[in-house]
Give the backbone structure.
Amino acid sequence: MNLRFAEAACEEAAEGATVWVHDYNLWLAPGYIRERRPDLKIAFFHHTPFPGNDVFAILPWREQILESLLCCDVVGFHIPRYTENFARAASTLVGANRGPKVPVDKKFITVGTALSEGTVTSHLEHNGRCVQLLSSPVGTSPDVIQELSWSAAVENHGELIVQDTKKGRKLILSASRVDYTKGNEELLLAYERLLERRPDLHGDVVLMLACVAAASGMKIYEDTQRSIEEMAGRINGRFSQIDWVPVRFSTRRIPYEEMIAWFCHADVCWITPLRDGLNLVAKEYAAARRNRGGVLVLSEFTGASVVLDGAVLTNPYSNRRMDETIETALVMPEEEQRDRMSRMTEAVENYTVKDWAEEQLAGFPQAVVA
């Protein structure tokens, strides 16, 4: 597959053009492209977390992957931790020379979270090539989201949410896909514990779990979906009242305008992946809540956790921490909500998807190592 993509790119690219390759599925493509078209500039962006060296080294093809990525001119990652993981793997497994470490950009949180880094390797040198390393968290389009949030279509969706789901209750929203890494099961178990501890919340809180179904044919995803459905059903069976169902669960792909309406009306956005390269849902929620309150409860194992100062960080591996943070979110004073949300909205507005693309494509080294 990688070879076919590489051949297609080489066939289409003009002399000296830039080829931008995306994610681990195409790890081997840069090597094939460089072999066939040495005139091309190659950038690679890694959307998923690049693992630590002891985990990455398990792969039998580790050298081939690293040698391919070191054929690039620019290799980008969401956050400095992933960049450092790659730099360490490249230096220890195939002998790439690491450039100096530099302080991370001010948009990153440098202390206090699972994925924080204070410094990051600037570049690698290997086989006469200088490979620039960039830490650039993919942005969203806050102007589009904010314009949509006041549109008639979104307001119509919002009215239905208020009438059919919220009904004066605290609305907790979680949006992801059916995936064993997304922490949906951990979230449902935490919600079940909340309802067990807090009978006073029965009828006063509702969870909307929007969990897009994975493609059919993969047993692990089918098993995960079955587990999520069983948990949601159990919670509803245990706690439902005549006029209250504690979990609303959907596996359909929600249209974007409707999703914006859910963001606008959710008092809490609860995002708890076990691992996630970034998590754009968290950024989109912050964009939609401009000049409003709302609480983002976010796993500290997402890349977004080191760029969204103001999120309530949680640990999906810890029942105690999951329990504490959802309780904190539900009682947070409005003034604190607005203060936290304004910081997150500012971060999202200051680094959009356009800024991300420009930073990546402007990152080519000025000279090749002799």
